[in-house]
Write a structure and sequence with these properties.
The complex is a heterodimer of chains A (271) and B (400). By secondary structure, chain A is an alpha/beta fold. Helices cover 45% and strands 15% of the residues of chain A. A five-stranded parallel sheet of chain B has the order 4-3-7-8-9. In chain B, strands 1-2 form a two-stranded antiparallel sheet. Chain B has a two-stranded antiparallel ribbon with strand order 5-6. The longest helix of chain B is centred in the N-terminal third of the chain and has 14 residues. The chains are: A alpha/beta (271), B alpha/beta (400).
Chain lengths: 271, 400
């Protein structure tokens, strides 16, 4: 296969994840990625784009985002102003049609990677409104009576934090992958891609404490990969000795973000 | 292909559509499974299962189809250390592998191998490398690792690739099953289903409809023409009644989380919370301590809340029959001349939508839990889990 995704210099992916990206590319279906916050869902798209040497288009979803926003916007107000001031070209509606991110991906002259980030943030019905567009990779602009069709089917990656259930009809069209929390081996590899020169002892102790914190049962927000990476960075910059790590728990606020958790961690982790 | 697997998935409760199944066939056609069972497992999973809560069901279906049973024998730590001999691999050549295989029975029958394996596991007491009978490395028996036998049982050693069955066997997605009892965040999400935007209701148009105004104005040649619309506000009113009786103590944390979720999701028009002890009688308590005096009349509540309140009752319905049927009161105070059952009937009469959430509901009819069965017949009862709460919320929003 010409389009095959592999782990890149700065992104380490598990075998299953690689398989799902490649199957999604081969079957030309959107890839839906779920997982704990901080497991690198969004970074995946960047890595896929880098690895395949394609342009990445990011569509960030917010609670107010409508499906229409991704397709195109008809700037009626601009047209109204232009009309009132007798501007040139008001007759030409096409001048006031602005493509959204999805439209941009369709119009692109070469294949792109389209990331629809945090799709669960939007309204419950949002994914349903995109079914046709993602299936057929085309949409119709009513105002100009034109159909925008993808010149090259984009590689679509969708991330979700599982805040909302996604509709079945939408799920059926996707390939699904749940990013597991990395085990220690993979985690070490991930940290090393970020900080290749981290001192062995520091790394070992920090990882140990990190996994201990994650295993505390009544912790509210478990720290994730990105927090470990930040922590190790902080420890390096702070020049903290690896041996006193567990006693002092320096920069704990980087790992644990909630007040009540800080308390619990201090009690549980101390010898 | 693999139709048996399709039906196994269906029977485990996975709702797989024909389209998804055809996608899998397509993937097989394109050789995406690389003739490997493990790869097939991942590809099938990513195409057929669309939520991590169902990974466990899939694992079980996969196991059922591609392997009869899990081996029940265990391999001791000592034996595994005897087998961890990577250096032995260098000694082995392909031709040797070939003749190694000729020695013991070529006829490999899975049950037979397992049986013998168990037997030898019991008898063996030392390390063996290169033998022809005991479990060890480099051997020609069907047991051990790095051996030449094709149909044997692999014991320990390192492996570069996790096999599908060790993934399946671990059942590590069990925690994601959505019939698991839930936490605060998931509660809040489930409660979000309780939405009814008042645009559907009969109220005056009080908000400026910007889009329609612009459209109309544009169509009007640029002369302003205002359009109004109904405000979009959640019109749902919620009444939460929680059991705080003795049998509910193990669920305090759970109830606390439910309570917090309801109050955090502050998008309801109104939320009222009251407590009761085992069953609803003439008084409802204002605090979970259920102290005498700190209460309101249940009938007052009926009078002061309209039928549109969505009622969620949380309780385990675990009470003695007399607590449900006696008309003369109990040690908790008066019942106002009506039995608990009759009070529940009144509640049912007073509100259009009621659900009962039970943290330890028995499945189906449970004759040994008389009170629960009686309550279940009166009010729709759901288990207090993600799936249960979702079902209950759907029920609350329906008009029946």
């Amino acid at each position: 296969m010409e389009n095959t995704f592999n782990s890149t210099q700065d992104y380490v992916a598990s075998k299953e994840l690689l398989a799902s990206v490649n199957v999604a590319i081969a079957l030309q279906k959107p890839l839906l990625i779920k997982g704990e916050p901080g497991t690198g869902k969004t970074m995946l798209a960047q890595a896929v784009a880098n690895s395949l040497g394609k342009k990445l288009i990011i569509w960030n979803i917010k609670s107010t985002t409508k499906a229409q926003d991704g397709l195109y916007m008809y700037d009626t107000i601009q047209r109204l102003y232009d009309g009132q001031f007798g501007e040139e070209g008001v007759d030409d509606i096409a001048r006031y049609i602005k493509l959204g991110k999805l439209g941009e991906a369709f119009e692109s002259d070469e294949q792109v990677v389209l990331l629809i980030d945090e799709i669960d943030k939007a309204d419950l019905e949002f994914p349903n409104d995109l079914l046709w567009e993602l299936d057929q990779m085309e949409f119709y602009i009513h105002e100009t009576k034109k159909t925008v069709k993808a010149k090259h089917r984009p590689i679509v990656i969708i991330t979700s934090n599982a805040e909302k259930e996604l509709p079945d009809a939408f799920l059926r069209r996707c390939i699904f992958h749940f990013i597991d929390f990395p085990n220690e081996e993979l985690m070490e590899e991930i940290v090393r891609t970020h900080y290749p020169n981290v001192e062995e002892n520091l790394m070992k102790n920090a990882m140990k404490v990190f996994y201990d914190i994650r295993s505390i049962r009544d912790i509210r927000k478990k720290p994730s990969t990105s927090e470990l990476i930040d922590w190790i960075n902080a420890l390096q910059i702070g020049g903290i000795s690896a041996d006193t790590l567990r006693q002092n728990l320096p920069f704990l606020g980087v790992v644990v973000k909630k007040d009540e958790d800080l308390e619990t961690v201090r009690q549980e982790i101390h010898y | 292909m693999f139709l048996k697997f399709f039906y196994a998935c269906k029977s485990k409760g996975l709702n797989i559509s024909l389209g998804e199944w055809l996608d899998l066939q397509n993937a097989l056609d394109q050789g995406l499974c690389e003739s490997s069972l493990t790869q097939f497992y991942y590809v099938a999973r990513m195409l057929l299962v669309k939520t991590e809560t169902e990974y466990d069901k899939f694992d079980m279906a996969f196991e059922e189809c591609f392997k009869g049973v899990k081996p029940e024998f265990e391999v001791g730590k000592t034996m595994l250390s005897w087998l961890d001999k990577p250096e032995m691999a260098k000694l082995l050549h392909e031709e040797e592998k070939y003749w190694l295989n000729q020695v013991e029975e070529i006829h490999v029958d899975k049950d037979d191998v397992e049986e013998k394996f168990k037997q030898r596991l019991k008898d063996q007491d030392s390390e063996h490398n290169g033998g022809s009978y005991w479990i060890g490395t480099m051997g020609k028996t069907q047991f051990g690792n790095m051996g030449g036998n094709v149909g044997g049982v692999r014991v320990g050693g390192t492996t570069g690739y996790q096999s599908a069955f060790s993934v399946v066997g671990a059942r590590k997605y069990r925690d994601f099953r959505d019939d698991k009892v839930i936490d605060n965040r998931q509660f809040q999400l489930a409660l979000r289903r309780l939405r009814q935007f008042s645009t559907k209701l009969d109220i005056p148009k009080t908000e400026l409809d910007i889009n329609a105004t612009i459209d109309k104005t544009c169509n009007n040649g640029g002369y302003l023409q205002i359009e109004m619309q109904k405000p979009r506000k959640n019109a749902v009113k919620l009444l939460l009644l929680m059991d705080s009786g003795g049998t509910m103590i193990p669920y305090t944390k759970l109830l606390n989380e439910l309570f917090q979720s309801v109050h955090k999701s502050n998008h309801y028009k109104e939320v009222k919370t009251y407590y009761f002890h085992n069953c609803i009688y003439s008084k409802l308590y204002k605090t979970p301590e259920c102290e005498n005096g700190d209460w309101i009349d249940t009938e007052w509540l009926f009078r002061n809340t309209d039928r549109d309140y969505k009622v969620i009752i949380v309780g385990d319905a675990a009470m003695a029959p007399e607590e449900l049927y006696s008309e003369t009161g109990n040690y908790r105070g008066p019942n106002g001349g009506l039995s608990g059952y009759q009070w529940l009937q009144l509640v049912k009469k007073n509100y259009k939508n009621i659900v009962w959430m039970n943290p330890k509901m028995a499945p189906g009819r449970a004759p040994w839990r008389e009170a629960e069965t009686a309550v279940k017949e009166l009010l729709p009862m759901y288990k207090l889990t993600v799936a249960g709460l979702n079902e209950a919320m759907t029920k609350l929003m329906s008009n029946k």
